[in-house]
Each structure stands twice: as structure tokens, then as C-alpha cells.
Design brief:
- This is ATP-binding cassette domain-containing protein.
- InterPro entries: P-loop_NTPase.
- The chain has a four-stranded antiparallel beta sheet with strand order 2-1-3-4.
- The protein has a single domain, classed as P-loop containing nucleotide triphosphate hydrolases (Rossmann fold, 3-Layer(aba) Sandwich).
- Strand 1 and strand 2 form a beta hairpin.
- It is globular, with a radius of gyration of 14 Å.
- The protein contains three helices and four strands.
- By secondary structure, the chain is of the alpha+beta class.
Length: 98
């Protein structure tokens, strides 16, 4: 069962394009690895999933539209940054359980 569905996601700030029409899905209880070079739009993509309104198209988390209920969808996600600070001694699965 799909939990996260992203279709043709784009985000612009002013004249700059931060995320340029990407799409992906994540299964319920799945793990998704968003690994790209610096300035590729990873952080912006995660912020759109949690709190930002996309410039275009579809973001659904648990069958809830991220545009219609950003706080609600943001509470359904966990995020592990590369530099996890106090949690740097744990692996991803352990971090997400805390």
C-alpha cells in the first residue's frame, strides 16, 4: 500500500527552480533514501512533504493532501539528516524509533 505519493512536484522561490518536476512513491512502513549531490533540492523536497506548499502538482501522505493539511501530513513523517547531531551513534532504524 502506498503511503507517500509525489507526482510532478515542483517548487520555485522567486525566479529560481528548487525542485523541478520530480516524482516518487514510498510504501507504508517503507524507507526512502533521498541521496543526491548538494544543492539538488533534497531539503526543499523534504520541507514540501512536511510544511511547504508545492508550486505544482500532487503530494499525498497517508491519503491526505499535503497542500490541504501541511501540519497533519508533516506529523506522519520522520526525517534523518546526514549529520544527526546527538543521534550520530545510531543507525537510521534506531533513530526513527526514538
Amino acid at each position: 500500500m502506498l503511503f507517500v505519493k509525489v507526482c510532478n512536484l515542483a517548487k520555485r522561490f522567486g525566479k529560481g527552480v528548487t525542485v523541478n518536476y520530480i516524482g516518487f512513491t514510498v510504501e507504508r512502513e517503507g524507507v526512502f533514501d533521498l541521496t543526491e549531490p548538494n544543492t539538488a533540492g533534497k531539503t526543499a523536497t523534504l520541507r514540501i512533504l512536511a510544511i511547504l506548499k508545492p508550486t505544482s502538482d500532487t503530494v499525498e501522505i497517508g491519503n491526505v493532501g499535503a497542500v490541504s493539511d501541511p501540519p497533519g501530513t508533516g506529523r506522519m513523517l520522520s526525517y534523518l539528516p546526514k549529520d544527526a547531531g546527538a543521534y550520530s551513534h545510531t543507525n537510521c532504524r534506531e533513530y526513527l524509533r526514538t
